[in-house]
Amino acid sequence: MSVRDIENHYEMLGITVDHSTIYDWICKYSTMVSKYLNEIVPRTGNWIRADEVWIKVAGEQKYLFASMDDDTRYWLASDLADTKFQHNADNLLELTKKAIGKNPTQFITDGLPAYQKASKKVFGKSTHHTRHIHIQRDMNNNKMERLNGEIRDREKVFRGLKKIDTPILDGMKVYYNFTKKHGALKGKTPSESAMIKVDGK
Length: 201
Known about the structure:
By secondary structure, this protein is α/β, with parallel strands linked by helices. The protein contains 7 helices and 5 strands; from the N terminus they run H-H-E-E-E-H-E-H-E-H-H-H. It has helices at 3-12, 19-37, 90-100, 113-123, 142-157, 168-178, 190-193; strands at 47-57, 60-69, 75-81, 106-108, 128-130.
C-alpha cells in the first residue's frame, strides 16, 4: 500500500492527513525502531548470503547490497552504492559481522569480485567463500533473490526512494524481519526464527 493509498484510506474514515505527512511518520518511526533493533544480536547460523539489487533513488539507478542469514532468512545488513562493479563491499561485511557478532563459516554470493576481496579482508581465512552460483546446484542463491524481490516490491510502492540516506530502507528491513511471515520458516518471521522477541511495550 502506497502512502497515497493510506491517505485515501484515512479520507474514507473522515480523517484528513496529507501523504507527505504519512511519509514523514514512516521515516521517523523507521529510524526510531531500527536504532533499537540494531542493538539486538540475532541467533543465527554459520552460513551467510549476500547479493545486490538495483533500485531507484531520487530518479537515479543505485545498487543495494544486502546480507542475510541462511538459516533464519534474517536480513542482517545493507549498503547503498552508486555502482555495482566498482563498489567496495567491505562496509557491508563489517556491518554483517557486527550484526551477528562473529565470522561466518560459509559466505555465499554471486561472482562479483568485490565480495571475494571483502571476504578475505573482513572475514579472513576461516570463512569459506562460495561464488559463481549456479541455479541448478544446491548452493544457489535463491533465498537472497527472494529478499531482492521483496525489496523491489516495497520500493515500487514508494515509487522510488527520495534520497540516498532515506530511513525507508530501515523500515523495509524491519518489515521483512519482524512482520513478514515465511512459508519456508513454517509461518514464522525471520526475527522469530532468530529468537528475537519484541513485546512492543
